[in-house]
Each structure stands twice: as structure tokens, then as C-alpha cells.
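User: Second chain of the day. Same drill as before.
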Amino acid sequence: MSVDRHGMYLDIIERHKGIVFKVARSYCSNEFDREDLVQEILAQIWRSLDTYNDSFKITTWMYRVALNVAISFYRKDKTTAYKHTEIEDKLLSYDMEAERENEQSLNELYTFINELSGVDKAVLLMYLEGVSQSEIAANLKITISNVSTKISRIKQKLKTKSA
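Assistant: Same format as last time:
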């Protein structure tokens, strides 16, 4: 393992770890599943680091990796017995208290996000992060007009739900 690769990985994770946690929270309501998903995403980012194409923003690439892992994780057969192994040496920690400042609204938002289909969920997460529609389209391999339509429909669903 080269020091440069390791340093690059740690820097990327430190600067953009919020992406990993937002995706994990959107796909897993159970804390233990969420921790497992975070670890899977972090491991896949490490394994995929050599494939990163710097013509894309690092955040766009991270979303692609995180969403692909989350969708696979979400689809995996949940009928098998779940075993949680405590990970004593975590790669990083995340201060959830900072995210709980507006807990009620945040929980309502995540409840809404969890009700969305996989693609709509991914579109909304990236949209909320400020990712451009063209980047969302490239990430999800759909057209920009499809992204616009999905965003519009999601906003309408949210308005209806809030009313």
C-alpha cells in the first residue's frame, strides 16, 4: 500500500464522509445495518480508488460508489440471520450530535426518503447535496430530462405529504 494512496483515501473520507453517512442513513433505518453499510461503502471506496477518473468530481464518484454499494446492500436477502460484530477500531467517527440539531425535521425527511424507490432516492440525495442535474444523470445513467422529471415529481410528493 503506497503512502500517497493511503493519504489520499483518508483525505477524501475526512472531507466528504457526510456523503457516506447520508447514503447509509437513507438506505438503513437500523443502526447496526447502517454501521455495516458505512463499512462496506468505505471498503469499496478504498478498493475502487485506483479506478477514480479525475475528469469527474470526487463527490460525484463517491456518490456513485456509495449508491451502488447501498443498492446492493439493500437488495441482499434479509431473511438470513443477522449477526453484528462490533468493530473496535473504526476507520473514522462521526458526530451524530451535530446532525441531530434539527432531529424532528431530519427524521421526517429521512422517512420520506426511505419511502422513495431506489433511483428516486438516489436522485433526491444528490439533489439535496447540490449535485448538478447533468452529474446526477451521468451518475445514474439516465437522461437529464428524466432527472428533471424525477425531481419535479419528488417535490410534488413532498408537498402533498407536508400538507
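Residues 77-92 have pLDDT under 50 and may be disordered.

User: Great, on to the next one.
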